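Quick one, tokens below. Sequence please?
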């Protein structure tokens, strides 16, 4: 399998202002190169992804996350040990997926301590 070449991206790296028209070359699980313009000529095994008008940025981290909270404020029932573990697991899976789809790649979770 070849490289993945992302072309035309607006790069937001958290250190500098957003840079338009950037090319990011990924090989395996590692970023091989980041440069302005078209970047290297792709080889036949490479995959080229046009990101013109789209932004690439590092994943965000939520430093206070309650995976089992759902619809807080709409129900007087507490969320926690009063629900079966299977229900809490489903809520957590749904909330973690939502977190991931909104650009978060890490979270520090809060939990309910048992006496």
């Amino acid at each position: 399998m070849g490289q993945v070449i992302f072309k035309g991206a607006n790069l937001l790296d958290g250190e500098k202002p957003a840079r338009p028209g950037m090319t990011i070359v990924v090989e395996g699980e590692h970023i091989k190169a980041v440069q302005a313009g078209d970047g290297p000529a792709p080889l036949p095994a490479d995959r080229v992804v046009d990101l013109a008008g789209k932004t690439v940025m590092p994943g965000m981290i939520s430093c206070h996350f309650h995976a089992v909270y759902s619809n807080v404020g709409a129900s007087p029932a507490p969320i926690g040990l009063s629900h079966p573990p299977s229900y809490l697991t489903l809520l957590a899976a749904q909330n973690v997926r939502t977190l991931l789809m909104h650009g978060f790649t890490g979270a520090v979770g809060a939990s309910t301590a048992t006496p």
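The helical segments are 85-101. The longest strand covers residues 19-27.
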